[in-house]
């Protein structure tokens, strides 16, 4: 009879998935507990290839400077800045952590992953112009947004974003906001830098290993993984597991069998970009220009004309165009969605369809759109666009959270949600935008929730990494401005 024994090793923590979430957590643990044995397990042959890859995400460094979906308009016309302020505060946590790593020689040249790129919002039509004016007024009362400028003048628009203004009728009613505090972040490159630092202080990163099971082993977890090349199987026994596997987080948490995941489901959405191939056109645009979402569109599908820096090269893209696939990862299986349906979530997943008819209609229209119709969407933001200057590429896969509510119905959520077991032994991150941009804030909250007994020892270290942690920059203009200036200097960003 064949020997079916599997070698079991031990670790202080196992992080599943080699993307920005696990990379951030590994770098943070290396600061808080440098003596820990941490293992990162990634299914693909390299790290940061799924949602963290530059061409698979928007890479704005979401800070709500330009994303209109974070500032909803009420029925009375008022605009609430609350969600935008929260997201900006969370992004400042990321900026402070990255600045700390650079200032203390943990990671190298920040120009490898972050660049200054002005953030803009652009709208047209009288009602939308009025909304953008109200949004500007609501946001600039806050010190994190007070350098944002507003215009309805075509000449000013031409200065801020020549490609948006070029060949646009001067009679068209338009408005735009512009902020110099915006950034472009290559999260794939950042993932590599963070894990490289973590490796230097003892973290083990294993690529080409797929986690196939999570089982209780007494008070620990047994994390079983299989080599994608040889089929070899191994188990790591650990008291702490983080599931940062993008769309695969849901089925892995289901495998773990924790009651906190009961009732949760996922709705996958895919996408595509148009990428500019003409260097002369790319050189004319230096901004991230976000518009208003179509009716029913998920937040990840808000149209934007973006300057990007990916693998050190300046690029220009437009999109995304939403699509649909049952895969939970870009490299996933067409059975992912169906395999995630369980007796505990099936009724909730069915219940989300009727309230989200607008979303279904939107996705159907996107799937049915012709190449000409898709290009017309680009022309709305760039009237001078020429088809020969653009190519279509496939974006990343996102799984929107279907969460149970108190009435045992399902609610489709757009955003990021953290699930943790009651005993603090396992946690995972579900959902999509703005997860990458706010990963530092999410990971600190995860650690404080899962290791309450270590808070007194960790508090001074966290305060050094993130000086504003536990306070509100929005309520202290001097602190907000000082933080922006300090992180800009450390990260090599322009701040003028």
Automatic annotation (TrEMBL):
It catalyses: (S)-malate + a quinone = a quinol + oxaloacetate. InterPro entries: FAD/NAD-bd_sf, MQO. One of its GO terms (molecular function) is L-malate dehydrogenase (quinone) activity. The keyword Amino-acid biosynthesis does not apply. Keywords: FAD, Flavoprotein, Oxidoreductase, Tricarboxylic acid cycle. HAMAP family: MQO. Belongs to the MQO family. This is Probable malate:quinone oxidoreductase.
């Amino acid at each position: 009879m064949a020997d079916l024994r599997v070698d079991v090793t031990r670790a202080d923590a196992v992080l599943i998935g080699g993307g920005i979430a696990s990379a951030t957590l590994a770098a943070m643990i290396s600061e808080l507990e440098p003596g820990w044995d941490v293992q990162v397990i990634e299914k693909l042959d390299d790290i940061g290839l799924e949602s963290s890859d530059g061409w698979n995400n928007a890479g704005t460094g979401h800070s709500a400077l330009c994303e209109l979906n974070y500032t909803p308009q009420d029925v009375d016309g008022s605009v609430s800045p609350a969600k935008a302020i929260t997201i900006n505060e969370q992004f400042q946590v990321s900026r402070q952590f990255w600045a700390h790593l650079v200032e203390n020689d943990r990671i190298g040249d920040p120009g490898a992953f972050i660049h200054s790129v002005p953030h803009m919002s652009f709208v047209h039509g009288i009602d939308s112009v009025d909304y953008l004016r109200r949004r500007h007024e609501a946001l600039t009362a806050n010190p994190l947004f007070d350098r944002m400028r507003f215009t309805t003048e075509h000449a000013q628009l031409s200065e801020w974003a020549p490609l948006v203004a070029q060949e646009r009728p001067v009679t068209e009613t338009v408005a735009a906001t512009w902020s110099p505090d915006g950034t472009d972040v290559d999260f794939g490159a950042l993932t590599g830098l963070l894990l490289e630092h973590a490796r230097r202080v003892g973290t083990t990163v294993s690529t080409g290993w797929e986690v196939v099971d999570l089982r209780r082993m007494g008070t620990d977890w047994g994390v079983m993984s299989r080599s994608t090349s040889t089929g070899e199987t191994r188990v790591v026994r650990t008291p702490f597991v983080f599931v940062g596997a993008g769309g695969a987080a849901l089925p892995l948490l289901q495998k773990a069998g924790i009651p906190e995941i009961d009732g949760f489901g996922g709705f996958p959405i895919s996408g595509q970009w148009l990428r500019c191939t003409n260097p002369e056109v790319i050189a004319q645009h230096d901004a991230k220009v976000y518009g208003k979402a179509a009716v029913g569109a998920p937040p990840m599908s808000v149209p934007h004309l973006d300057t990007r820096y990916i693998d050190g090269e300046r690029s220009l893209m437009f999109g995304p165009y939403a699509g649909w696939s049952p895969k939970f990862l870009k490299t996933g299986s067409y059975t992912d969605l169906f395999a995630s349906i369980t007796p505990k979530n099936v009724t909730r997943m069915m219940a989300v369809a009727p309230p989200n008819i607008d979303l279904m209609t939107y996705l159907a229209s996107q799937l049915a759109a012709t190449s000409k119709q898709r290009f017309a969407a680009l022309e709305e933001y760039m009237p001078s666009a020429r088809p020969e200057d653009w190519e279509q590429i496939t974006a990343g896969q996102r799984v929107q959270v279907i969460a149970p509510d108190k009435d045992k119905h399902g609610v489709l959520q757009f955003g990021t949600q953290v699930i943790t077991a009651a005993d603090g032994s396992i946690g995972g991150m579900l959902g999509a935008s703005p997860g990458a941009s706010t990963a530092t804030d999410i990971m600190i909250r995860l650690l404080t929730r899962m290791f309450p007994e270590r808070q007194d020892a960790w508090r001074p270290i966290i305060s050094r990494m993130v000086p504003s942690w536990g306070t509100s920059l929005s309520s202290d203009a001097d602190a907000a401005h000082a933080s922006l200036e300090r992180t800009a200097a450390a990260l090599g960003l322009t701040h003028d």
